[in-house]
Sequence to fold (198 residues):
Amino acid sequence: MTDIVLASGSEIRASLLRRAGVPVIVAPVRIDEQAIREALLAEAATPRDIADTLAEMKARKGSEKNPGALVIGCDQVLDFGGKLLSKPHDLDAARAQLRALRGQRHALLSAAVLYDNGQPIWRHVGVVRLVMRDFSDAYLEEYLARNWPGIGAAVGAYKLEEEGVRLFSRVEGDYFNVLGLPLIELLAYLGQKGAITA
Fold:
């Protein structure tokens, strides 16, 4: 059976795949995401295109390093009224992001691209729309004290699978996309291709 490689160091993505019975090999790749994102923004690329491009670049690089394997590249971006938010680099950045998002609507876009022998064979971008509740400054400070630095690895400074769920009044879309992987669609394709038992 063909190896399935995840070109990402995300423990959540690897765990989702393994719990779904996919024998995935984790082999993270490095690309200059910041430079690529800035170049795409300068060209007025949409958040969807940015997520898709970053996922594809990771899958392509992973495919170069793992010939003969099916390689999954992933990326997730947060679209806040057309502006992209990145992972907060420090506590002040996390505080500022959460204050900006408070009481507002935003979207998470989770892209996955599958490569086989240097060629893209499948791609999907899942979208989840979220509304953050208008929580108090006191709760914000308590939340940050309890959850930093863990939320520093999460775009938007929250993890819905943890206390971050308390920040929201509404979530519309597939929960797996919130976690950074369009899992249902990916499993369907892998099954159709015969890479996993369908």
Observations:
- The radius of gyration is 17 Å.
- The domain at 4-193 is CATH 3.90.950.10 (Maf protein).
- The chain has one domain: 4-193.
